[in-house]
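Protein: Copper resistance protein B
Species: Paeniroseomonas aquatica
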Amino acid sequence: MIPKAFRRLAAGLLLATLSTMAWAQAGGSHAEHGAAASPMALAIVTPAGVPAAAGAEDHGGHAPLYFGAALFDQNEIRSNGRGSPIYAWEGSAYYGTDYHRVWVNSRGETNKDGGGLERAELQMLYSRLIGYYWDAQAGVRHDFRLQPKDGTPSRTYGMVALQGLAPGFFEVQLQAFFGEGGVLLARAAVSYDLLITNRLILQPEAELNFASGWDRDALISPGIYRTEFGVRLRYEITREFAPYIGYSYESFNGGSSGLSRRLEQKPSQSTVVAGIRLFF
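Structure follows.
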């Protein structure tokens, strides 16, 4: 039996994809403005600035154009006012054509004690454009074990995903992971770039992590086991260089909160963040 949370996530994923395709084919109002404001849209737009359409893979007898980009969306110092601050990052890079690409996603953070890495995650994905502003992806995720005595164990998952722009230019990532004893994981993340001025941009974001069962060593429990919410205000000196400040909240939920307490970790924390967003 597939858990209700996964059925609902799949239904939402299908509805968002279909509604976006219909919206884009109808004209996608302010599409040019949204593409300029969104790094994910930049990754989906062709070098000529025109959104590529699924099924239109015709190079007119010419070799396809290969290009790439890299984005460190989070490259920051976090502090809760007590103890040493930590460094955290979240970034992605791709290389390929309008329709076929290889993506590398990475995230992680240091610990408060010795400055070493607390956790790190790496994803390697093949991506295929399936509709206006949407990519289907498949690949591998690996979580690194960085503290042999105290840290969570390493894990490797197969994964499938959808990423793109929902109506209103909300950036959406929907990912599903499978492996490690049959426990299914899912992650849903959404963010939005609110232009206060052409250079001053407010970015709220949210992330929910789901599991179908227990993986106690990795602090995973059934249901929504981890949530993250944040808001960041950046000033784009250039498109490639944007300092920012903000607020971040992370929480283990349900059975995962008890598992984190066993490791003498707080199940939730609020931090003030400051960093520099880099786009290449």
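Remarks: Helices lie at 4-25, 31-37, 39-44, 255-262.
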